[in-house]
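2024-03-11 09:14:02 INFO worker-7 job=invfold-0412 stage=load source=structure_tokens
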């Protein structure tokens, strides 16, 4: 089954959705490998018309390329994500990855060559390694920082080791925690982010556990005191226009199907918001 309204031919498409069904490094509860298909199923619940943005997804050129073949090892899977993404980017298409776990983001983000990487996450993911694995989902942001760009912004954070928080301070990583958003409002945080990035290009990665487990309990590593879906949507609406790539990761549909539904909805918001900008 394809993502709803993703019925353009590949050659015509402006957006390419692909699944990356891999959860081999998951540290607590695994199961995100089944998320791409669950997100696609849930996507059929929604209307094609987006009343907030006045965009109808049937007017857009969206292609669903299906799933990449996940390897047993993270390294194999990463190289398949990279070659798929490279294919789309070189043909001027915006890649949208349905994970899978957060470890896969590095392969997609690198190929998109963004000026900024913005990560929505409960967790800093700044460990140098986790259980001997440098490409664990607990190390994603650290690898992005070391291998792709120093221009990193993390939003929704509320968990990390003391060493990770020290790394943030020492390297002046822009980090907006969930409590700050709750206290000051998402608009004020977005204004600050806009001051950093201006009109420069962004790769946006949505680790769904950025959102409070009350709204998104279907995740491998739930962390209370998170963001609201509405604030997350606001971030997507604001940033999508300058995004060169997007992913939604860490959904475990067996734990809660509504989290997959939320992932599908936010993916649709991303597509519509990016389009809205192109029109005006
Ligand atoms: Mn993460
Ligand atoms: Mn996380």
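2024-03-11 09:14:09 INFO worker-7 stage=emit residues=280
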């Amino acid at each position: 089954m394809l993502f709803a309204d993703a019925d353009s031919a590949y050659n015509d498409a402006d957006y390419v959705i692909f699944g990356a069904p891999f959860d081999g490094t998951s540290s607590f509860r695994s199961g995100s490998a089944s998320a791409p298909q669950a997100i696609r199923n849930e996507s059929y619940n929604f209307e094609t018309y987006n009343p907030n943005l006045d965009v109808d997804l049937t007017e857009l050129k969206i292609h669903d390329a299906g799933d990449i073949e996940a390897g047993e090892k993270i390294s194999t899977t990463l190289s398949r994500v990279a070659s798929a993404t490279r294919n789309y980017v070189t043909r001027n298409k915006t890649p949208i990855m349905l994970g899978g776990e957060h470890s896969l983001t590095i392969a997609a983000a690198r190929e998109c060559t963004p000026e900024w990487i913005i990560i929505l996450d409960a967790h800093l993911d700044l460990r140098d390694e986790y259980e001997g694995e440098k490409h664990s989902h607990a190390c994603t942001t650290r690898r992005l920082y070391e291998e792709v760009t120093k221009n990193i912004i993390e939003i929704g954070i509320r968990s990390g080791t003391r060493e990770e928080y020290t790394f943030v301070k020492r390297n002046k990583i822009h980090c907006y925690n969930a409590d700050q958003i709750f206290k000051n409002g998402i608009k004020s945080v977005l204004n600050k982010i806009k001051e950093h990035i201006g009109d420069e290009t962004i790769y946006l990665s949505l680790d769904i556990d950025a959102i409070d487990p009350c709204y998104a309990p279907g995740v491998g590593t739930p962390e209370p005191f998170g963001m609201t879906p509405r604030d997350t949507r606001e971030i997507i609406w604001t940033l999508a226009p300058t995004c060169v790539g997007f992913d939604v990761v860490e959904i475990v549909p067996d734990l809660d199907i509504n989290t997959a539904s939320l992932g599908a909805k936010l993916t649709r918001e991303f597509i519509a918001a990016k389009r809205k900008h192109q029109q005006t």
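2024-03-11 09:14:09 INFO worker-7 stage=report msg="The CA atoms of residues 31 and 252 lie 5 Å apart."
2024-03-11 09:14:10 INFO worker-7 job finished
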